[in-house]
Amino acid sequence: MKKLFLLFSTVLLMFGPISLMARSLDEIRKAGTLKVGVALATPWVLKDAQGELTGSEIDIASLLTTDMGVEQESIVLAWNDLIPALKDDKIDVIIAGMSITPARALEVAFSQPYAESTLAVLARREGPAAAAQDAQNMNQENIKIGVTKGTVAAQTAQQLFYQAQVVELPGFKELIDALEQGQVDAVVTSQPLPRLSVLQHPDKYLEPIREPLHQQVEAMAVQQGNQSLLNYLNAWIAARKADGYLARTQDYWFHDFDWISRVVLAEKPDETQTTPSTEPAKTE
Length: 284
What we know:
This protein has 284 residues and is an alpha/beta fold. The protein has 2 domains: 2-116 and 217-262, D-Maltodextrin-Binding Protein, domain 2; 117-215, 3-Layer(aba) Sandwich (D-Maltodextrin-Binding Protein, domain 2), CATH 3.40.190.10. Helix content is 38%, strand content 19%. The chain has 11 helices and 13 strands. Helix 7 (152-160) links the parallel strand 8 and strand 9. The termini are far apart.
């Protein structure tokens, strides 16, 4: 008995309490619901004209749960709350366009990538950032650049624009509000938000730097040690890459923009009709 206790204690030390808390694939299927953590950011997750969640991640999670034979429960969180919620067992998986980074991989277990994205600069036409055509010209002391706190965009801006004034904001809504109100001259964020903003308001905004600042791959995230769920996600992603579903979803939400007529063009992380509705967060 003493040896069994020591063995159990060793297992606890090796794998920690998180792996014991996470619901396994079998437990999720028995419960009949997958708790999906999402964060509002166009077009990953946003609201349509009826106030219902839509977006690339909602579509992906919907097919995932259908294939899994369970209901989808999307839990909207602020970007910085996603990983803590996962570690606290409030959600089973993050499907929010989260890019893989070494730092995040210390806290969560990532699936294989299912999408790619790039970072870009969106600037006010009336401001010092408008004339900057490359990173060097953007890296000026008189330029204020907004970023969402805790994102790859924030890290990238601090590395590239170290002489500029990099302003961290809690979410996407605050980020675009700051740009709209002139509190910052430009923002660094994921495409297609800059492209959409310019398309809808060419008189207000432009993309001064045409080349992407950074490329990243996005993946689902589960608690470390939840191998059964991770195995299923990896298999599902492989199958849906092979049949073209993930590519079609990416094209629809990130390139076609036919969905714009279905969503509210007023609240958002661009609460000023910069782009479709959403609130704090994202992916980067």
